[in-house]
Design goal:
Shape of chain B: elongated
Structural class of chain B: alpha+beta
CATH architecture of the largest domain in chain A: 3-Layer(aba) Sandwich
Distance between the termini of chain B: 57 Å
Number of domains of chain B: 5
Shape of chain A: elongated
Strand content of chain A: 25-35%
Strand order of the largest sheet of chain A: 5-4-3-6-7-10
Radius of gyration of chain B: 40 Å
Structural class of chain A: alpha/beta
Number of strands of chain A: 10
Order of helices and strands of chain A: HEHEEHEEHHEHEHEEHEH
Number of helices of chain B: 14
Largest sheet of chain A: 6 strands, mixed
Oligomer: heterodimer
Helix content of chain A: 25-40%
CATH class of the largest domain in chain B: Alpha Beta
Distance between the termini of chain A: 26 Å
Strand order of the largest sheet of chain B: 19-18-20-21-27-26-25-23
Number of strands of chain B: 36
Helix content of chain B: 25-40%
Number of helices of chain A: 9
Radius of gyration of chain A: 22 Å
Largest interface: A-B, 38 and 27 residues
Chain lengths: 292, 679
């Protein structure tokens, strides 16, 4: 892979560390170039997959005559086809992602997304990037070139927290743009209606997409660590709520836990990977979820 | 109701009431801003917790606003007027304080007598007078009098007199006291006010009719705080009133329980040297009597004293009397009627316990000294004089002469006007006629019930007097066999007996019958006077006692039971002796006149019985709305000068401050509890 200039979200030391990582999603990808990733698409390959009974119209060259000699029946040998991988990264760029210190959730998610794109492209796979808030702010179609990489990095650097969170709307609008089965990675704080999100993910799942949800939260959001009276200003709408942090802490934590639990439960039921990403942990640890 | 502000110039402070709401609003904007991501979760939680928090906030705001309002009002020093606000330059006031110092005011409650409380109220009234006002204090006792002869401006002197005043043991005379007050106020100028400070004892005040002229404003103040319970010796008397030596006598001591609960009291009677105790069960608000049988051995004036076991109001627990024990009954005989006078004379001389005194109707004082007056052949003369004697307690036995009219007999018996026409007339009987008992149950005939003394009606008459008794109320004691009255007992008190049975030898044989003398004795004994003539040994507190000492008396003095001497003066000197009169007696008790070291006479001074019943009942005229307000002197003063409210407001502010602190503390605890429960 060609040398990269220094990007904000992809630093040389990170690139060095990523050399030892490999993006190997658990599901097989469907690509149009033969690659190093296993595909459920049957075809010519050296990796035996299975036998199946012959049906008229099948390629006779695939009949295993040895089996015919032993069983007097026609069976075809099937092989696993290795294809290149296509990965779609959805990065939540809503206003609430601007929360956090010293690193905002958006910055944290951008670091992770940049590293992810680098890993995908490093394997000559294709990656796309969608930046959304209450709509699609930017969509970069799948690509695997250095130029594409630079475009993605520049897009991440230019990105800033925007309006309200609408994950479900973004997923619904992006679906027509994705023609091939691929891996979908959604990085968001998911301050949206969880059932609506999974309703929007249903078409992806139906088409065989492998989906990973990374729930990015700041420790301050998780613990509501401040004390006393505060005017909570909504970063998306600007609405103000005056409350005593000490009074509402318990209820807040319980509400947040309920939301996380709901997302986790819905993800488990739909066979979707879910991971809670705390901004006080290094984003490299998130790759473990992709490698499993 | 009106309110004036003494510091109205500080009205601008009222703006401070707006401070709490402003602070409240200002405090709400103070929290630092925190741009936050999950505000929707915060909002959801806050919506739940604010349901509890909002009312507390409003309560705190309310308490703080009231606190500031109370402080501001306290600084403005408001004065509350229940009536109209007084106008500066109002006319001077003329105030008379009628202060009850009768015996009932000595009742002590809470360590202070009612009289002391009344004096304090009176002082409070006097304190409220200005230098232009005039005042006076009238004492309500047996003989009401005033400190000043007319209204005066020296209020400080009145207050000093109030400090030195003591309740008397006298009964009160509210009507006379009110008359005195009103006479002073009628002559006074300016706004006239009468303050009646009394316990309004029911026995004294319930019959008092108050007619106060409209310009005079009457205020009543009562020092009574709680109902009082009391026991008292109401009276002590003997039956008969003037017993004879050797005669069985009942000494009756009447005791009252002025209390809502029944009580058992012990009465100790001292009869000369004899001491007897009796227990009396008394119903609530009831009376009872302790009765002791006694026989006086010899004629004398015997002191009899009754002492009740002591209670909180001890002055009325003692009462004494002097029993005039005599050797014989004095029976006056008037007239020389041959049909009755000789026989009555013989019979009275035959009775050892009677003393016959021949009287003339021209000497009424000599008649009044008798226990019974017998008129033999009364022709109707001096009927009014005799009627007065009878009305004063002298019983009469009258054998009228022929021709005496029914009207004269009616006047004699005190029965009022009777129909004219009929007169007393002799009647000769064709054949002898006997007697019969018309009232066999009368106590005159008690002696004859067992027959030992014969039949008192055993007699035969050939002539008789026909009495015109038709229309005269009464009944025959003994009647002739044909039903006409022989002895007719008029319905009068004391008794008046009309005698129609002739006792001379030619008219009948009743006087010669053996039962006649016992019957005559029983008749005289039963008709004896119910009062003791000439006995002035009992007085009331506040009155003087006197003694007619022998002319040769050298060192006359009067002493009470403790030996303390009472000042006496010689009021007159004559052939009968030297009259000594004491200063007014203050306390009930037995007082003894001494000549040198020898006790010559005893006088009893008894507590006025009307003062023992401590129940209160102000006259309806005084209780009527608009005429009087039953309230404290401080209230009256406040109504006139305004009641300062700043102290109350200051206390209210303190209370609100405490309440605010309590609410804040409660909010903190609630917040902590909520936080802990949520965590």
């Amino acid at each position: 892979m060609a040398e990269h200039r220094h990007f904000k979200y992809l630093k040389p030391e990170d690139i060095r560390r990523l050399a030892s990582y490999e993006f190997a999603p658990k599901a097989l990808a469907e690509g149009y170039l033969s690659g190093r990733h296993m595909s459920r698409q049957r075809g010519s390959s050296v990796e035996f997959h299975d036998y199946r009974a012959y049906t008229p119209g099948d390629d006779r060259a695939l009949i295993d005559w040895r089996v015919f000699a032993r069983t007097d029946r026609y069976y075809l040998r099937t092989y696993q086809q290795e294809t290149n991988l296509e990965c779609h990264v959805f990065l939540d760029s809503s206003g609430s992602m601007g929360f956090g210190a010293p690193l905002t959730k958006l910055e944290y998610a951008s670091f992770f997304s940049a590293a992810l794109c680098y890993l995908v492209l490093k394997n000559s796979d294709r990656v796309s990037l969608s930046l959304f808030d209450d709509g699609i702010r930017a969509f970069y179609p799948p690509g695997s070139t250095n130029r594409h990489m630079q475009q993605l990095m520049n897009a991440l650097e230019r990105n800033a927290p925007g309006k309200e969170t609408a994950v479900s709307a973004a997923l619904r609008r992006t679906l027509p743009l994705l023609t091939r089965r691929a891996t979908v990675i959604v990085v968001s704080d998911f301050f949206d209606d969880a059932p609506a999100i999974f309703e929007a993910l249903s078409p992806y799942l139906h088409r065989g997409f492998r989906i990973h949800l990374f729930h990015v939260l700041d420790p301050q959001e998780l613990a509501l660590g401040k004390h006393g009276m505060w005017t909570f200003v909504d970063m998306e709408t600007g609405a103000r709520v005056i409350a005593n942090a000490d009074v509402i802490r318990g209820g807040y934590r319980r509400a947040l836990d309920e939301q996380i639990k709901q997302l986790r439960d819905l993800a488990a039921r739909r066979n979707v990977d879910y991971a809670l990403a705390r901004t006080d942990t290094h984003y490299f640890s998130l790759f473990d979820h992709l490698a499993r | 109701m009106n309110i004036l502000f003494e510091n109205a110039a500080l009205a601008w402070l009222a703006a401070a009431v707006a401070v709490p709401p402003l602070v409240h609003l200002f405090a709400r904007a103070r929290p630092p801003r925190w741009p936050f991501g999950a505000t929707h979760l915060v909002l959801r939680v806050v919506r739940n917790t604010m349901r509890l928090k909002r009312p507390k906030d409003w309560l705190l705001l309310l308490l703080r606003t009231f606190l500031f309002a109370a402080l501001v009002l306290a600084f403005l020093r408001p004065l509350l007027f229940l009536g109209a606000v007084p106008v500066p330059g109002e006319t001077a006031r003329s105030v008379v304080v009628l202060l009850d110092r009768s015996a009932s005011m000595a009742w002590t409650e809470g360590g202070q007598s009612r009289f002391a409380a009344a004096c304090a109220e009176a002082s409070e009234i006097l304190d409220g007078l200005s230098s232009r006002d005039k005042a006076n204090v009238v004492w309500l006792d047996a003989e009401p009098d005033a400190i000043f002869p007319a209204l005066g401006a020296n209020v400080s002197y009145l207050r000093r007199r109030l400090l030195d005043a003591r309740a008397t043991n006298e009964s009160g005379s509210p009507a006379a006291a009110l008359d005195l007050c009103l006479s002073m106020l009628r002559e006074a100028a300016g706004r006239c006010e009468l303050y009646i400070v009394s316990d309004f004892q029911a026995g004294q005040w319930q019959d008092v009719r108050v007619a106060v002229p409209d310009p005079i404003r009457v205020h009543t103040l009562s020092p009574v705080r709680e109902p009082a319970s009391n026991g008292a010796v109401l009276s002590i008397r003997t039956e008969p009133v003037a017993p004879l030596a050797g005669e069985p006598v009942q000494i009756v001591c009447e005791v009252a329980n002025f209390c809502a609960a029944p009580r058992k009291r012990t009465v100790t009677l001292e009869i000369g040297a004899r001491r007897v105790s009796r227990e009396v069960m008394l119903a609530a608000w009831g009376t009872g009597a302790a009765v002791v049988e006694h026989t006086f051995a010899e004629p004398a004036r015997v002191p009899v004293e009754a002492q009740l076991d002591e209670d909180a109001f001890g002055m009325d627990d003692w009462r004494g009397t002097l029993v005039p024990v005599r050797e014989a009954l004095r029976v006056g005989l008037y007239g020389t009627d041959p049909h009755t006078a000789p026989v009555w004379t013989r019979a009275l001389r035959a009775l050892p316990w009677t003393e016959l005194v021949t009287v003339s109707l021209d000497q009424p004082e000599r008649c009044a000294g008798c226990d019974l007056l017998m008129l033999a052949g009364w022709k109707g003369e001096h009927a009014d004089r005799l009627a007065r004697l009878r009305a004063d307690g002298l019983p009469l036995v009258c054998a009228p002469a022929e021709g005496v009219s029914r009207q004269a007999l009616a006047v004699l018996a005190g029965l009022g006007p009777a129909a004219a026409g009929a007169t007393v007339a002799w009647e000769s009987l064709g054949k002898e006629i006997g007697l019969q008992l018309a009232e066999p149950d009368n106590r005159v005939f008690t002696l004859f019930r067992d027959g030992e003394f014969g039949d008192p009606a055993q007699a035969a008459f050939r002539k008789r007097l026909r009495l015109p008794v038709a229309g005269l109320k009464g009944q025959a004691l003994i009647s002739f066999a044909d039903g006409l009255p022989a002895l007719y007992l008029c319905d009068a008190n004391p008794a008046c007996v009309l005698w129609a049975a002739p006792l001379s030898a030619g008219t009948g044989d009743w006087a010669t019958q053996l039962p006649f003398l016992p019957f005559f004795g029983e008749l005289v004994g039963s008709l004896r006077a119910r009062r003791a003539h000439g006995l002035q040994a009992v007085a009331s507190p506040g009155a003087t006692v006197s003694w007619l000492a022998p002319i040769q008396a050298e060192s006359v003095r009067l002493a009470d039971e403790q030996g303390d001497e009472i000042a006496v003066t010689e009021s007159s000197r004559g052939l009968e002796g030297r009259m000594f009169v004491s200063d007014p007696i203050a306390r009930p008790g037995a007082y003894r006149w001494y000549d040198g070291a020898t006790c010559r006479e005893v006088r009893m001074v008894n507590f006025p019985a009307v003062e023992s019943d401590l129940r209160t009942a102000p006259p309806p005229e005084l209780s009527a709305a608009g005429k009087s307000l039953l309230q404290r002197a401080a209230d009256l003063r406040a109504a006139r000068e305004g009641r300062p409210l700043w102290k109350m407001l200051a206390w209210l502010a303190v209370a609100l401050l405490l309440a605010e602190s309590a609410v804040v503390l409660w909010c903190d605890l609630e917040t902590r509890r909520l936080t802990e429960s949520l965590e």
